[in-house]
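Deliverable D5.2: sample structural annotation.
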Amino acid sequence: MTGPMPPPGPPRPPMDITRMASAAVLVSGLVVLFSSLFDLYSVEVSPGAVEDSVSGKVNVGIGFYTVVPFNAPVVALALPILGLIAALTALPGVLGRRQATLVSAVSAIAATLLGFVLMVSNPLPDVELTGDLKREAGDELKKLGISSVDELVDRVVDIGPGTGLILSLVFSVLAAAAAVVVYLRSPAGDRPPVIVGPGPTPPQVPMGPTSVGFPQAPPAQQAHWAAMPAVPAPGPLPDHAPGPMMPGPGGHMGTP
């Protein structure tokens, strides 16, 4: 024999997508911050591209906070700062609150756009020669089949995005997507609540001074009663009015 079926357990609480998205923004923002510890750009210098007798390469990493030999673009410092702002403003959403969702989304989107700009830009400055230096350098470069100094730099120096920039861009995209989800799923986002004023109050029926808990009649009914003729009050009985009926000797009712 089988016993009675056990009662069903408590219902499983629904998954809070907004809180999970806020946690994703928090983690991604912190990853963007710590990605700044890696290289922003990777520079590879190959002298053999110009002179065949020279072998070997020079690898240089330009970090977010690198000072020498090449300065990192100052604007790159905004990338970890924006990631930190997105992470901090997403912390209330992890705790179940809906605060600063717009700030978190804007910071993550700005970090994403900045990452794309740094990915396609060239941090090395342009070189231009003038005067005798340009003429002498041009003669030497023509022997190598190069027309300008910029072409020489492009041929010798190969620069590309570093590990830190790649990680920052990837997690900035994740943070931006999650922050937009949090903002769209918030009841009101960061928009101010709409204050609805009180509606029209119902008319109150005045209470009479002598009535206890009973409302007076409407004004129209009061006017109708006032138009009715007044009933005179009863006065004293006239002298010829018959007196009270008294039983007679034969049992008949009569006046005394």
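Annotation notes: Strands lie at 39-45, 58-63, 157-161, 246-247, 253-254. The chain has seven helices and five strands.
The annotation will be released with the project's public dataset once the embargo ends.
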